[in-house]
Amino acid sequence: MAHVVVPEAEEILDKEYPVLDKGFVRLVDYLGGDQRIVQSARVSYGEGTKSYRKDAALIDYLLRHEHTSPFEQVVLTFHTKMPVFVARQWVRHRTARLNEISGRYSVMKDEFYVPATEDVALQSEDNKQGRSDATIPEERATSIRERLATDQKEAYRSYSEQLDEGLARELARINLPLSLYTEWYWQIDLHNLFHFLRLRMDSHAQLEIRLYANAMYEIARKVAPAACESFANHRLGSVRFSAAEFTALQSVLGGGCDPKDAGERAGLNGRSLDRFLSKLKDGSQA
User: Fold this and answer.
1) Which residue of 54, 64, 165, 280 sits 20 to 30 Å from the alpha carbon of 244, by its own alpha carbon?
2) Domain boundaries 7-102+182-236, corresponding CATH code
């Protein structure tokens, strides 16, 4: 089987996609593309690649029916630079291989994330783990940004002084804040990348990691455009219904029943009913 070269992917190798104030994502290597997915899927009866239209249709069929192993044949390696708190959310996805810069061996750079004024927000009243959508006065947001920057400078000043005094790097680093930028190489197959993107591109994901996911999706589209198109249709832009929700939906579609009444008759109540109504309204899975 010949090595798969994707011209669009070759053009963006090592190109930095800026994210946040100092971060980036770049593709450093890839293995395979849409053609590799098709080749691996057809290996059982030995046929070569067809036309792009037929290949795209096969890829769409595979993803739609969750035949995921051919997508594992495509591998992407990213170099990313992001704040530590983003990295700690990111590393929860344990289906990748990574190598991160170490503060035990290297002196960490004086680089910290400060959110843009428009991204400074108060705690959400109905989401215990997220910020509110409501904006706050620019003057207050500016004051908060200045306070964050001041605290970061003080933390790094102390870190630098302790290094100059001979303290071990592995100890000097422990008071550095989560806003410190870190870097890693992150390698993942396309199937598991799609799972990462489905979760981290969702509107309920934290803004900062969502921006990284968006950049990675744009890169993945260069490597495997047909697969990404199917992913956008069947995963990213889709809504899943539970058995009870589907029963309620059938009532709504079949008899013009009010969604709330249909949900209650199907046994939904409280938050489960709210989730069902949100799915009908805006596609939200929350």
Assistant:
1) 64
2) 3.30.1360.170
